[in-house]
């Protein structure tokens, strides 16, 4: 219930202040495990990633956020779960894989941080998808969160990562690069539109 209320409020916020346009929502499976992989430029990216969709999107969030009394309780109720800085714990990975195996949707930013935009990307998204058998949907967030300027979110077609099913370190790097390449392609295509 809290998630639906929050999504509606964010939808109004993004539409009013950033003229949000969502493209390709039909590419997001309506059921089953999905990893949404997006570029990361702002603290507003997580709510933006899930706002246009009807399904709930779970996210890993910095463990420190859960120590803030009201915020910690609120983000737990909207599907976030803690991850420690400096590396994802085995417990966080297990929880993420279990959420996916249970048919949920997980939002991940393969770049890792907002400061790594355009970088190679971290292997976590590919690893989670390959371990759980989840569909991987690349997502491009286009725009700069400037008031009253258009923000566009583009959901691409699910990627076939079956060629990287070996899950060796090299396979994960190649799968991650395939994800990042498609995110960059979508971003480039729609930043010109």
Automatic annotation (TrEMBL):
Phospholipid/glycerol acyltransferase domain span: 34-144
Q: Which organism is it from?
A: Paenibacillus silvestris
Which keywords are on file for this protein?
Answer: Acyltransferase, Transferase
**Source organism's superkingdom?**
Bacteria
Q: Which CDD domains did the record assign? A: LPLAT_AGPAT-like (cd07989)
Biological process annotations from GO = phosphatidic acid biosynthetic process
Q: Which PANTHER family match?
A: 1-ACYL-SN-GLYCEROL-3-PHOSPHATE ACYLTRANSFERASE
Keyword Acyltransferase (UniProt)? yes
Asked if the Swiss-Prot or TrEMBL record annotates the protein with the keyword Acyltransferase, the reply is yes
Protein name (Swiss-Prot/TrEMBL): 1-acyl-sn-glycerol-3-phosphate acyltransferase
Molecular function as annotated in GO = 1-acylglycerol-3-phosphate O-acyltransferase activity
InterPro entries, from UniProt? Answer: Plipid/glycerol_acylTrfase
């Amino acid at each position: 219930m809290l998630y639906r209320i929050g999504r509606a409020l964010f939808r109004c916020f993004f539409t009013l202040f950033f003229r949000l346009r969502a493209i390709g929502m039909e590419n997001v499976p309506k059921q089953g495990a999905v990893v949404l992989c997006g570029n990361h430029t702002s603290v507003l990216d997580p709510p933006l990633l899930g706002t246009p969709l009807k399904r709930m999107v779970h996210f890993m969030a910095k463990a420190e956020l859960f120590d803030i009394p009201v915020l910690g309780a609120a983000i737990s109720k909207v599907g976030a779960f803690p991850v420690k800085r400096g590396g994802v714990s085995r417990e966080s990975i297990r929880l993420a894989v279990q959420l996916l195996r249970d048919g949920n949707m997980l939002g991940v930013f393969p770049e890792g941080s907002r400061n790594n935009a355009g970088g190679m990307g971290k292997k976590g998204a590919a690893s989670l998808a390959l371990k759980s058998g989840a569909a991987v949907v690349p997502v491009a967030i286009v725009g700069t969160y400037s008031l009253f300027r258009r923000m566009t979110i583009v959901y691409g077609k699910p990627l076939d990562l079956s060629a990287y099913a070996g899950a060796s370190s090299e396979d994960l790097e190649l799968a991650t690069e395939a994800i990042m390449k498609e995110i960059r392609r979508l971003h480039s295509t729609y930043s010109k539109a």
